[in-house]
Design goal:
- The protein is α+β, with helices and mostly antiparallel strands.
- The chain has five helices and 15 strands.
- It is globular, with a radius of gyration of 21 Å.
């Protein structure tokens, strides 16, 4: 389950249990396992319920950072594996393995230039299978980003606060503002007092352009993959390229942190929960 491995199909889409085609796919939206480790664990739980007894799980590329160490430790203890294979350079001493791991030699990774070229080929293939959709974000649930997770201020409230041209949401103690305008500090203090929040998170509309996304059912099943072209925050409508043939209802829109432009070039990862 390595979202960066070309063998698993389009990057950032986790495909497990391969036969003629994947029988289980789950959108991840990133090449970085640190972005959403809880999604990795949930995905493994669902996938192993469908796996054959001889299934082989290819884990993410490990880095010596606390969040990945804890994630991998939880996976090792939460699931019963018959055998654990690790490369000779894996930091075995820092883990508590439920069974003694077997050390193996693995081939060297392909150069970054080759990996990048293979991923770009996947993006080109994905985009060639996409169709244009218009999604009404007022009626579609959103997952994976800050957008859509709070209470949206209406036009009257925004005008009263001097934020008429911004999209504004309140989530707990956080005020989330999407705008391409400079906001005076005094206006933000007034808005925070009005909404009873103690911090502000800003984003610009263009940050959503090119973000990976998936169409999903409310039960979590993904049925289409693609990218966001643009979100019009005045109407809260999103132009999306997706592999699903239109028209189709979209109960849930999952949005990732990796952006890919119309030429299939990657534009890096956005920090989690910044948009």
């Amino acid at each position: 389950m390595d979202p960066t491995d070309p063998a698993f199909g389009s990057p950032a889409i986790l495909s497990v249990i391969r036969q003629e085609r994947p029988i289980y796919e789950r959108f991840y939206g990133s090449l970085d396992p640190q972005r959403a480790p809880h999604v990795l664990i949930s995905t493994m739980h669902e996938a192993l319920g469908l796996a054959k007894p001889d299934a082989v799980i290819h884990m993410f590329a490990y880095k010596s950072v606390p969040i990945l160490r804890q994630t991998l430790q939880l996976i090792l203890h939460a699931f019963s594996f018959d055998k654990i294979l690790v490369s000779h350079d894996f930091p075995i001493e820092s883990f508590l393995f439920p069974t003694e791991p077997e050390i193996i030699e693995v081939d060297k990774s392909m150069p970054n230039s080759v990996q990048n070229a293979q991923r770009k080929a996947r993006w080109i293939d994905l985009k060639s299978r996409c169709h244009s959709h218009t999604i009404d974000l007022r009626t579609t649930k959103i997952e994976g980003v800050r957008l859509g997770g709070g209470t949206v201020l209406d036009g009257y409230q925004k005008q009263k606060l001097g934020l008429r041209n911004s999209h504004v949401e309140v989530t707990g103690q956080t005020l989330f503002v999407v705008t391409d305008e400079e906001i005076e500090e005094g206006l933000m203090s007034r808005a925070m007092d009005f909404t009873h929040t103690n911090r502000v998170q800003f984003a610009t509309p263009d940050l959503y352009d090119g973000c990976l996304c998936a169409f999903s059912k409310l039960n979590g099943e993904d049925f289409g993959f693609g990218t966001i072209e643009h979100i019009d925050f005045a109407t809260l409508r999103a132009r999306v390229l997706c592999t699903t043939i239109p028209p189709v209802p979209v109960p849930l829109l999952r949005i990732g942190s990796l952006r890919v432009d119309h030429l299939s070039n990657e534009h890096g990862e956005l920090k989690p929960w910044t948009i």
